[in-house]
Write a structure and sequence with these properties.
192 residues; single chain; two-stranded antiparallel sheet
Amino acid sequence: MTRFALADHGQDLSFQPNPLWSTARLELRRPRADDVVDVFAYASDPVVTRFTDWPAVSDLHQVAEVIAGWQRDWDSGAEFTWVVTMRQIDRTIGSVSCSLTGADVTFGYVLNRAHWGNGYATELSSALVKRLLAEPGVQLIRATCDEENVASRRVLEKVGLNYRGRAPRDISRPQISQLPRPACLYERLRIE
């Protein structure tokens, strides 16, 4: 079981994320080496990666390294990444991840654009927020998105996160600019 120190509460949060869970239409599972081709399909797409804080990939070897990193991060408790598949079709259409710092959780998601406009981002983000709020030690859930990413802003609002203002200019979007860009900060406190 992975343990995280809760700085604000002087206790440990025992958090063992479920490696496999589902929503009404989606299944989320730990990434595997054989996800390389499907992850490459969205991680190399300049439209999908326009607002990501990581650069688009250019070959399958890069994706294999990313997936290996996801697996190492999971095992160490640094970050938890699930690939998103359609129920009963084990084909990766995106990913969602979260990291913990004390009692705060930050999450993000990305989907293959062939699956945009179907409500999947809202469905998986909503389910993740509910799961995180069920963890007794989680006090704050946070997400950011580029100021121009209107679709993600809507998703974060739909899943119950509140707009807190502009985040400091410390997030670069490599497909747009190497300089940090304005981002919107969304949060949900446990007591809200």
